[in-house]
Design a protein that fits this description.
The complex is a heterodimer.
Chain A lengths: L2 E3 L4 E5 L4 E3 L2 E3 L6 E7 L6 E7 L7 E2 L2 E6 L4 E6 L8 E10 L5 E6 L3 E6 L1
Parallel strand pairs in A: 2-12
Antiparallel strand pairs in A: 1-4, 3-9, 5-6, 5-10, 7-8, 8-9, 10-11, 10-12
Chain B lengths: L3 E3 L3 E4 L5 E7 L5 E8 L3 E8 L6 E2 L6 E7 L2 E6 L8 E8 L9 E2 L3 E5 L1
Parallel strand pairs in B: 2-11
Antiparallel strand pairs in B: 1-3, 3-8, 4-5, 4-9, 5-6, 7-8, 9-10, 9-11
Classes of the chains: A mainly beta, B mainly beta.
């Protein structure tokens, strides 16, 4: 993907609530992977969940799930039963396609700062 | 568990200094990456390497160079540091397939150039 857009710079919810972070992307590829990364205040970026584009079933990892809408190029992250430890920056990302048509790094959105209130 | 380490968490340098940021991964990953993270801009790719001695430019390579002499180590070099290079630098690695494999990140180096 050449562009990844996260339209929510910051969100705040109460503990135990469900929250959805939005992400849209632009790509000309037929198959690709999409990722959500979490960066807690300690700064270590870790993978939350990933989705392969040709799989119709939405990925799920415990309290984290995605709503992948391929035609709309939308990839939102849902966090159920939110916990204080979920407070972090969340980045949506997809693999890049370089000028030569090959792959290099990831294209990231600008991030959503999620705050879980006690 | 994959471990990606970076030589410094915090670094303060003077304008014009040559700066080396080191990154080491311990899982025999083929691909390594350097990103720069700035508030409101997300992460931007500086350089990546898919093999020893191989390197490719990312979106913002100007003012930076890289070195990969050994598979496990990928260095980012600021030839002559400038104040606009003050930023958080993140190193990452992935196993083999750039398109599919998850990238694992180091803790980051907060560089301040005075």
């Amino acid at each position: 993907a050449q562009t990844v857009t996260q339209s929510q710079p910051e969100m705040s919810v109460q503990e135990a609530e469900t929250v959805t972070l939005s992400c849209t992307y632009d790509t000309s590829e037929n198959n690709y992977y999409l990722f959500w990364y979490k960066q807690p205040p300690s700064r270590q970026m870790i993978l939350v969940i990933r989705q392969e584009a040709y799989k119709q079933q939405n990925a799920t990892e415990n309290r984290f799930s995605v709503n992948f809408q391929k035609a709309a190029k939308s990839f939102s992250l849902k966090i159920s039963d939110s916990q204080l430890g979920d407070t972090a920056m969340y980045f949506c990302a997809s693999h890049r396609s370089n000028i030569g048509g090959g792959a290099d790094g990831l294209t990231f959105g600008k991030g959503t700062h999620l705050i879980i209130q006690p | 568990d994959v471990k990606v380490t970076q030589s410094s968490r915090y670094l303060v340098k003077r304008t014009g200094e040559k700066v080396f940021l080191e990154c080491v991964q311990d899982m025999d990953h083929e691909n390594m990456f350097w990103y720069r993270q700035d508030p409101g801009l997300g992460l931007r790719l500086i350089y990546f390497s898919y093999d020893v001695k191989m390197k490719e430019k990312g979106d913002i390579p100007e003012g930076y160079s890289v070195s990969r002499e050994k598979k496990e180590r990928f260095s980012l070099i600021l030839e002559s540091a400038s104040t606009n290079q003050t930023s958080m630098y993140l190193c990452a690695s992935s196993f083999r397939q750039i398109y599919t494999d998850t990238q694992y990140f180091g803790p980051g180096t907060r560089l301040t150039v005075l």
